[in-house]
């Protein structure tokens, strides 16, 4: 019980003080919704949220495609190097990955001159980071599949693509959806990798929140944090209902 209180009590406080009728979070003054109203009229914050949303959608789309293929390959082909290549971005610290990515992008930009730090580099970084998570979820789903069904379909004259579309895809579909939702969640609230690969002009939601709390943790920060928390929890609930084994595989 104490462990759960330690984990979730700070989150409850953040949500509670987003309704505090005081600019300082020192004490509770009264209930108000003005901080949410102010947030929804903050064009800079809304622009950053829109950028993060677009990055999250695109990153989850492409990482789901590549992660699904990687998860199937991890299940079917026992190559020693493949798990290392797919799962390394998950295992290494985000700080190290962010530094390595920004160095890579800078070198590429010096060589070809068309890859400056910004929207594209953030998107590529998030895709690379999320592929491994999707692959783990899909592989976990593949492990519960009877491979003889695919072999039977092939014996009955189905092409490899038909066997995949009619047999494999329906079985792993819950894992694909759960992986896509997880990739979106990881992308939209990632700070470390985004911080290194964003460049000077990029406006992203985690970076805007960070710039706000450097001055003071105002109820407006609590409000945007509460909304982001709500979105994340909603996606986690959906993912767990679509594929209960997905979250256990990542646990």
Automatic annotation (TrEMBL):
Keywords: Cell membrane, Membrane, Transmembrane, Transmembrane helix, Transport. Gene3D superfamilies: MetI-like (1.10.3720.10). Residues 49-239 form the ABC transmembrane type-1 domain. InterPro entries: Bact_Polyamine_Transport, MetI-like, MetI-like_sf. GO terms for cellular component: plasma membrane. The chain crosses the membrane at residues 50-74, 81-108, 114-138, 163-185, 191-209, 221-242. It is a multi-pass membrane protein. GO terms for biological process: transmembrane transport. Belongs to the binding-protein-dependent transport system permease family. CysTW subfamily. This is Spermidine/putrescine ABC transporter permease. It comes from Chromobacterium alticapitis. The lineage of its organism: Bacteria, Pseudomonadati, Pseudomonadota, Betaproteobacteria, Neisseriales.
